[in-house]
Design brief:
The complex is a heterodimer of chains A (204) and B (579). Chain A is an alpha+beta fold. Chain A has 8 helices and 9 strands. In chain A, strands 5, 6, 7, 8 and 9 form a 5-stranded antiparallel beta sheet that branches. Chain A has a 4-stranded antiparallel beta sheet with strand order 2-3-1-4, with helices on one face. In chain B, strands 3-2-4-5-7-6 form a 6-stranded parallel beta sheet. Chain B starts with a helix and ends in a 23-residue tail after the last strand. Classes of the chains: A alpha+beta (204), B alpha/beta (579).
């Protein structure tokens, strides 16, 4: 990142991507790195990555780049963490999924459902006599907007998922793993020469 | 039940397995890792391991402590003097929670330690069973790694991983929690295989030669370079490499309290102690050097004082094995990630041989001021009251800097670190980062086990001693030879000093009464003596040092004596006060 110093000291949204082993207790180990410094995690998603047995965390916080860099190093220091990246919103493609439950009768009576769905990129997941569930994916502003739209029609329930993000520049972790198989790995990967020597890998 | 060594080492042939319990596998693993001594305390959930231990008496020494905290500090003392991994056994629940202070101390001071805790049966986990506590989650923030074993077959690999993680990279404490069923369970044991890598773990960062070159260039161009060294030199067993670097470059070097002894106290380029109660020269000169070379130290706030006024004029080179330490407190112009045993020789090869005569002389000029205004008065006080400094000074005269000095926390600790002579590495054992009162006595026990041929002197205050004095029982029962020196000022001295200097002498709960320590020692069958007069000091110290076996010497020192120099909190290191 080539941000100027002024920008470095400004708080902004960062998405931290963490590749880890799948280990009980690791979520806590990572979470307390934030809570110890009284930093709120705004969004957290943990799911399998593109590589079997390797998990991917997406953590969203608002902080300065300096703080985020230090946090990233503390996370990467954990024994079961493979690699940590942190990115600003410009560096990533991200989505959040939201579900909205509204009474079917009001919706059918007062709203042009078709127009509403089209305008907000939403779709109906379930339509029952008593309620309808819409779903949309997008950025926070987009999912928020649909809340506003549906609020007058008696929004019963709303839920939004954590952010999932893809790093624009990243060639994925697979590429990194493949690099380890080369005879002369690049400077960036030599730091973990054992990463993909599967048969030598110590697992429990 | 013991297993023949032959059965354990036939790894290449079709695996022969033996049916053993998890407990036996654990003990075999500890022996394979070279464990000589375990500090522990039995209890319900760790009984199967203790039952197995009954048959391992000749192979594995177990020291029964009087409190689990004592076991952790003893293991720390052992690790710090021996360079090996300290091992602790404790039971579940209260046994495990009593480890927390020692774990936190070992974590912040990077001490390699493996704690084994018993846990309730796996089927009882989460049921609030008797003596159940969530030890994994309680200890997560204070361990480098921890793991819960619920099946015996996991034990060898978990233990191997534990030792590997504890001792490699930046060392630290690990904890393995083993449920009772796993300890009792029979399984097919194929022998112990030590761990030598974990794919997600990078103990040694790859050394980037370009940074070493940049550092050398910066050092060669420097007019007033200054080395700060910490425990990293000791942990990396890089004392020789460090000495070679210092001597070739001719750069004055100052130490953090955990780095003390990496080069001898009287080395011509050793310019003294850093930090709040460190020496005058090194603190002031931090703010006048042009290149600051930090080696295996982490810029703790007790070393840096006010950060925004710390070495702002200097370019900073930071050598550390832990990438998370780079730029954490002080921004490095040139970071040299890596094991200093590896990086220092590379750097030494590239730096020009120099003598910074005038620059070193500046340090000596500050020394002279400190000697005249402070040290001579401390070591040779005019009044009748004994000073802590003169006690340490007289001890130096007798031990000639050959003893291991274990200190507790407080005024006496700062005095011991400032005035004790260290000819050898791994001689200053103290609780640095956590400042754990009560560390001294149990740590001295472990320190002696770690280096049985050396004299171990525990220097402890009257406050700290009363936090873990039950470990006198451990000394009595194990017969370990520890010289205990209580510097009794009848106050919680360091807090009293702050209250005097910053709270207008509002002495709030720092007046502490003590039992008759000599009688207390006698009740544990430990010989003891109290000294109140200067005339008796030297002969009493001699008697203590010459006594066969443990000895407790209580020295009554000045009640309201302050430790100086001092960098008051919130001040810059160059604002250090001599009085």
């Amino acid at each position: 990142m080539s941000n100027s110093n002024i920008e470095n000291n400004q708080q902004q949204e960062f998405t931290i991507t963490v590749y880890t082993e799948n280990q009980i207790g690791l979520l806590n180990r990572i979470a307390i790195i934030f809570s110890r410094r009284k930093i709120n995690i705004e969004s957290l998603n943990v799911s399998p990555s593109e590589i079997e047995h390797i998990h991917r965390f997406n953590i969203v916080i608002t902080e300065t780049e300096e703080v985020v860099r230090k946090l990233a190093r503390q996370i990467e220091k954990q024994v079961e963490v493979l690699k940590v990246y942190f990115n600003t919103n410009e560096d990533i493609i991200w989505q959040e999924l939201a579900l909205y439950k509204v009474p079917t009768d009001t919706i059918a009576e007062k709203v042009s459902v078709e127009r509403l769905l089209r305008e907000n990129g939403a779709r109906a997941v379930v339509i029952r006599k008593d309620y309808t569930v819409f779903e949309t994916t997008g950025h926070r502003e987009e999912t928020d907007k649909l809340i506003e739209v549906l609020q007058p029609y008696g929004l019963i329930e709303f839920v939004r998922s954590a952010r999932v993000a893809i790093i624009k520049d990243s060639e994925g972790f697979n590429a990194k793993l493949r690099e380890f198989e080369r005879e002369k790995p690049g400077q960036d990967v030599i730091e973990n020469e054992y990463l993909d020597s599967e048969k030598n890998v110590f697992t429990m | 039940m013991e297993i023949a060594q032959a059965e354990l080492t036939t790894q290449t042939e079709p695996k022969t397995t033996v049916s053993v319990t998890g407990s036996v596998a654990l003990l075999e693993g500890l022996i394979a890792e070279g464990t000589e001594v375990v500090f522990g305390y039995p209890g319900g959930a760790i009984m199967p391991i203790y039952d197995a231990l009954y048959d391992y008496n000749d192979k594995l020494q177990h020291i029964l402590v009087r409190h689990e905290q004592g076991a952790t500090h003893a293991a720390q003392g052992y690790a710090r003097t021996s360079g090996k991994v300290g091992v602790v056994f404790a039971t579940s629940g209260p046994g495990a929670t009593n480890l927390v202070t020692g774990l936190a101390d070992a974590q912040i001071d990077s001490t390699p330690m493996v704690c084994i805790t018993g846990q309730v049966f796996a089927h009882l986990l989460g049921t609030d069973a008797f003596q159940e506590t969530d030890v994994i989650n309680i200890t997560t923030p204070v361990t480098k790694w921890n793991y819960q074993v619920t099946d015996a077959s996991e034990i060898p690999a978990a233990l191997a991983k534990a030792f590997y993680i504890a001792r490699t990279g930046r060392p630290g404490p690990v904890l393995v929690d083993i449920t009772k069923n796993a300890q009792m369970q029979l399984f097919d044991y194929a022998g112990y295989v030590p761990c030598d890598h974990i794919r997600s773990y990078r103990p040694k960062p790859h050394v980037r030669k370009e940074y070493v070159e940049a550092a050398a260039e910066m050092i060669n161009a420097a007019k007033k370079p200054f080395i700060l060294f910490g425990q990293g030199v000791l942990l990396g067993s890089a004392e020789q490499e460090f000495k070679a670097f210092v001597e070739k470059s001719g750069i004055p070097a100052a130490w953090t309290i955990l780095g003390a002894g990496a080069i001898p106290t009287d080395h011509p380029l050793n310019v003294g102690m850093l930090g709040m109660h460190g020496n005058y020269g090194p603190n002031v000169q931090t703010n006048s050097c042009d290149v600051l070379i930090a080696i295996g130290m982490r810029f703790d706030d007790r070393v840096t004082g006010r950060l925004d006024k710390y070495a702002k004029q200097a370019k900073v080179i930071h050598l550390d094995i832990d990438p998370a330490e780079i730029d954490k407190n002080v921004k490095a112009d040139v970071p040299v990630w890596g094991d200093c045993k590896e990086t220092l020789p590379l750097l030494t090869a590239l730096v020009e041989a120099k003598e910074h005569k005038e620059w070193v002389a500046e340090f000596r000029a500050f020394d002279k001021i400190e000697q005249e205004e402070l040290i001579q008065k401390e070591l040779h006080p005019e009044g009748d009251e004994l000073s802590m400094g003169e006690v340490i000074h007289q001890l130096n005269e007798l031990t000639k800097g050959e003893a291991v000095i274990v200190s507790d926390v407080g005024q006496h600790q700062m005095v011991a670190c400032r005035y004790a002579l260290f000819n050898k590495t791994r001689s200053n054992i103290t609780s640095g980062g956590l400042g754990t009162m009560g560390f001294g006595l149990p740590a001295a026990i472990g320190a002696k086990f770690g280096t049985p041929d050396r004299t171990v002197v525990a220097v402890i205050g009257d406050g700290g001693f009363q936090m873990t004095l039950q470990e006198l029982g451990t000394i009595m029962q194990s017969g370990v030879d520890v010289k205990i020196m209580i510097l009794n000022n009848q106050f919680l001295g360091m807090v009293r000093q702050w209250q005097q200097l910053f709270n207008e002498r509002r002495y709030s709960f720092v007046d502490i009464k003590s039992p008759d320590f000599v009688k207390l020692a006698e009740s544990y069958y430990i010989k003891g003596k109290r000294v109140t007069e200067r005339a008796d000091l030297v002969s009493s110290l001699e008697e203590m040092l010459n006594h066969k076996g443990s000895y407790l010497l209580e020295v009554m020192v000045a009640k309201e004596h302050n430790v100086f120099p001092m960098v008051p909190q919130g001040c810059s290191v160059s604002e250090i006060r001599l009085k």
